[in-house]
Amino acid sequence: MVLLSEECARILNCPLKSLREQLFHPKNRILILKELLGRKVRTTYEDRNGQIKTFKIGGLSKYGANVTQAYGHLPRPFNISVAAHFYARHRIRLQHPYLHCIIERFPRHMENRYYPLELLELVEEEQSERSTPSTLKPLIFRCGSSSEENDEEELTLCELSLGW
């Protein structure tokens, strides 16, 4: 299996240490999303129940795991960063806490889950399954009419469709 952070570094043709700086450029984030959006990934760790989670990539955060809030828009004393969440809940100290996060989207819920790039690996799948999943296609139509609170936080399929 290939770690997602290594795959992103390969796509951008840069070392893993400079991946953080490369992902701050919007064109590089769009390039990564075009390659990886809708592909299946799985966690490299087990949760408290011993389960490994598998899901499809729904987006890429705009900032690193040290800045991205883990629990949405809760006020400051009740909310922590994604990096702090993984240490507090799973006892995993991130080696690259400044790398961006992958977003798992739930179409009918208002919450998203954020996973650091270094804790995910790509799942091998057939070429026909790599197309954009039907659950992400409605985001294209919703983006023009509504202003979500997370517009500045993440880059999604919505921004790809608008040519951002």
UniProtKB/TrEMBL annotation:
Top-rank taxon: Eukaryota
Coiled coil: none
Position of the signal peptide: none
Residues annotated as domain PAZ: 15-124
Recorded GO MF terms: RNA binding
Name of this protein: PAZ domain-containing protein
Organism: Meloidogyne enterolobii (Root-knot nematode worm)
